[in-house]
Amino acid sequence: MTELALHHAHEPPAGFTRWLFTTNHKDIGTLYLLFSLLMFIVGGSFAMVIRAELFQPGLQLVDALTFNQMTTMHALVMFFGAVMPAFVGLANWMIPLMIGAPDMALPRLNNWSFWILPFAFALLLSTLFMPGGGPAGGWTMYPPLMLQTGMAFPFVIFAIHLMGISSVMGAINIITTIFNMRAPGMHLRRLPLFVWTWLITAFLLVAAMPVLAGAVTMLLTDKYFGTSFFNAAGGGDPVMFQHVFWFFGHPEVYIMILPAFGIVSHIVPTFARKPLFGYESMIVAVMSIAFLSFIVWAHHMFTVGMPLAGELFFMYSTILIAVPTGVKVFNWVATMWRGALSFETPMLWALTFIVLFSIGGFSGLMLGLTPVDFQYQDTYFVVAHFHYVLVTGAVFAIVGGVYFWLPKWTGHNYDERLGKLHFWLSLISVNVLFFPQHFLGLAGMPRRIPDYAVQFADWNMISSLGGFVFGAAQLLFLYNVVRTIRGGAAATPQVWEGAQGLEWTLSSPPPYHSFTEPPIIP
Amino acid sequence: MTALGLANRRLGWKLAAAAVAMIGFGYLLVPLYQSYCRMTGVNGTTGSIDYGAALRHKPDTSRWVTVQFVTATAGSLPWEFTSEVATLRVHPGELVTTNFHARNLGNVAMIGQAVPSVTPGPAAPYFYSVDGLCTSGQALAPGEGKQLPLQFIVDPELPREIATVTLSVAFFDARPRAATTTPPLAARLRI
Q1: Given this model, what pLDDT does residue B176 score?
Q2: A window 132-171, beta carbon within 8 A of B
Q3: What CATH architecture is A27-228?
Q4: Are the Cβ atoms of A210 and B20 closer than 8 angstroms?
Q5: How many domains does chain B have?
Q6: Based on the domain organization, do B20 and B47 belong to the same domain?
């Protein structure tokens, strides 16, 4: 009897209910990661529609309303469905392993925060099939345009509420785990960088996501319950929505990059075979970036008509962000300095992250300068900027992290040649895709338009070609991941020669219940 | 439940309370924004003044300010809305009356709400209108026209470098929402 109970406690139950009722951090991490991979493909296919329509001037494939739905849904799905759940999945898998905890602090909450997501996205994606179509006013949902959404409107709002609840619950769990569940001897000043960046991200989530929930609820009551938050006739102000939205929105974009900083801070030391340079300064930099994220929001809205003092304040505070970000980039470079570098697939993604994310940072500096922003506002230059920070930033770090930890999760080494092929195809095509969009923006092409003036035709065609190759290259990633899950050469516990940390002391894959006895921390 | 389990729950609830408080903060941004706009004139938010207080101001006859009038109608309001004069030269502190004209060109009775806005922004806190045109909705029958007087006063404290102030008055559709945006259900379902 005891033996039977013990046996049950150590093996996952079989079948679908294992995944439905699981409170195991590894299972939930896997669910999050698979869900985000699915959403990455869904959101990516919306992007393919966008690039196909923009291949030539004129309207070829879709009508304008469908196009606008595609741009809106692409952003919503990629933010809330792909990037954020991928980071939460990585946190679920790795944080307990990195701090020597047996599981997340609130396992049942953890199950909830994942299983809300499929319902949220079922609501959101179902709007595409509703009369009047899905949301088409852009992911920023500015009124009064957003209020013109048809029957889909309340579905979108409730979907966003659910996503917000899910990510706030995930954040609460992560903070509680990091504060209460660390193995004895794992002081805060010894926490691995991924854990630190996630701790700070989780605080951003708790502070920012509820503000979005408030903003979209105001939209909902404005449309259906006669309030006038954003309705000028009733004494409201549509510009106020932008303030409330971006008070959430700017922390949100850092929510999507800080854990990426953490991932890169693990990959670079591993393949440079040197400890991370400037551990404390890395943490302080992340904290400064997190603080600054709350006082820069109006740089998204320089052109709404702010007083000069406001323009200057938001410009200076925005430019200030370059300082801690520069500290991080220099620390990564210093980590590699005179290291015994090797270039396995995760390292290639991390290196590319550093270079291309910096390019996104530079175009961010340009956009942060008020006078020039008046020209760049709402052009393709902005599109190029945030795709450099989100695709070659956040997504590349996630992909690098997946290659880095996949052998640990599955116990199998992935196909290195396929990984490198995926990397080189992605690296080249992503630049063909997004770099020309800088030129388009500087030449004056507005964002969110299905048709454009003929002088933009050439760069758009090149950009679309890059987009198709980039999209196809991700299918290689899908194939490689699935193949590694199903089998492959056995991975050693340490997996990478230079890997340091508690997670690498466990077998690959780690037992279903790990660190049930707290590890001894040297 | 173990001590650790209890500690986890306690911290979890505290963080949940913080998240709920942040929803409240999101709503708090609304009055904060409105008072900020009133104080600084952001978005041209003007002040209002009652008739008695307006008369107590002493006109500063040593100085002229040009007030320009701009009119607009927004959205679904088929109204003609004009100002009797394009510009007025006024002394700061002087109570001035000017007239606007509104006509409902549509075939249903409508209510419009006038929303004032003053440019440049720094002048807005020094521009007061006496209760009337912009404080309540105006109802117009189909085809009906109305003269709409506006009494205003420019504060003598208006910064000296500002010599021209533009008052924009926009009329918005202010009918109860149900009457404007919800077509019959059958039409929306398209079945």
Answers
A1: 66
A2: 132, 144, 147, 150-151, 168, 171
A3: Up-down Bundle (1.20)
A4: yes
A5: 2
A6: no
